[in-house]
Design a protein that fits this description.
By secondary structure, the protein is mainly alpha-helical. It has a three-stranded antiparallel sheet with strand order 2-1-3. A hairpin with a 5-residue loop joins β1 and β2. The longest helix has 58 residues. About 4% of the residues have low confidence.
Length: 335
């Protein structure tokens, strides 16, 4: 399905300009004739244009997405048709960004597109995990339950991220302060003390000589140090922009002592919560595993889980298949 912008003439001779969703241009023209409209021009709208529009008008916040998800779940559970529910959400939205986006989704669904396909056209707002869960709910016929589970999952994930960030604030502040103090001492105090030591004469302890030498190097080549840090950050960004570089960096992070284990445990929490949400909503196990794999957030770990999923598809027990994912699943979890 695709979105087409059209200009047409109605029965009163007035020109009408709007958008319509159809499989192709011929289908769009047929829909216009069915609405008693004589098309003047029908042009396909590229997906990127829609995303750019919502970026310019301010986009949609995570809180608004959560409210949309939960409200849509409640309306569908109450028996309200999909098109009517989307129309209500669009009308009740307070900001321009969400109002326009919900209206576009309503038009696309009313034009024959599934909700999952419509959401997949707005990748800057709805993540692939979100879209995959919606499609699973549509396929199984329990979309309202899946949407409620999505809202609950997003709330738990936001709470977990908040706790992790809160726990990291104090160590980061201490690290920044310590680094600032060390640089200040090496560039301001040590050069003055080194002059005093030189005036007194005599030999200095080895550790003191090393500190004085480090201070001289930092004072003389501070610009080179700054440029080196900038280049390293730029190189890491370039590496992360490529698939192979991102995998290498993620593999390196997992090998770091303590930090790598923490990242793996955080990925495990995301995977298990997503899997429990999907299975609890009635999504089949294999489909649930495939969707939950995308929630891991680390491609190296996701690849190992993908191989385990293939093993489950071949009929092997789930615990035995996940034994190869020791980095993500500790022995206690597998047991």
């Amino acid at each position: 399905m695709a979105t087409f912008a059209y200009k047409a003439i109605d029965l009163d001779g007035q020109q009408v300009a709007d958008k319509i969703v159809a499989a192709d241009r011929t289908g769009a023209i047929e829909q216009l004739f069915g609405k008693n409209l004589n098309p003047v021009s029908v042009e396909r709208v590229e997906e990127g244009q829609t995303g750019g529009l919502f970026t310019r008008i301010g986009g949609v916040s995570k809180r608004e997405i959560d409210a949309f998800t939960r409200q849509l779940a409640n309306l569908l559970a109450a028996g309200v048709p999909m098109s009517r529910a989307l129309s209500i959400l669009s009308r009740e939205a307070t900001r321009v960004g969400p109002k326009k986006l919900w209206a576009v989704i309503h038009d696309q669904v009313a034009g024959g597109m599934s909700l999952g396909d419509s959401l997949s056209l707005h990748t800057r707002v709805f993540s692939p995990i979100y879209v995959a869960m919606v499609r699973a709910g549509e396929t199984g016929g329990f979309l309202d339950i899946v949407l409620e589970q999505i809202a609950t999952f997003r709330a738990r994930e936001a709470d977990l991220k908040g706790r992790v960030k809160g726990a990291l604030v104090y160590p980061i502040i201490l690290a920044v302060l310590a680094a600032g103090i060390i640089v200040f001492l090496l560039t301001f105090f040590i050069p003055r003390f080194s002059q005093m030591f030189a005036e007194f004469g005599g030999s200095l302890p080895a550790l003191t000589r090393y500190i004085v030498a480090a201070s001289k190097i930092l004072v003389r080549y501070w610009l080179a140090f700054v440029l080196s840090i900038v280049l390293v950050v730029f190189a890491i960004q370039r590496m992360m922009s490529k698939e192979e570089g991102r995998r290498s960096m993620e593999s390196l992070v997992l090998r770091l002592p303590m930090f790598g284990t923490g990242m793996a445990r955080f990925a495990l929490v995301r995977f298990c919560r997503m899997l429990g949400t999907l299975v609890g909503a009635g999504v089949p196990l294999i489909a649930s595993l495939r969707v939950a794999k995308e929630a891991i957030g680390n491609q190296v770990l996701a690849d190992t889980v993908a191989s385990a999923i293939e093993s489950v598809q071949k009929g092997h027990p789930l615990a035995r298949s996940f034994e190869r994912c020791r980095l993500l699943f500790p022995a206690a979890v597998i047991e």
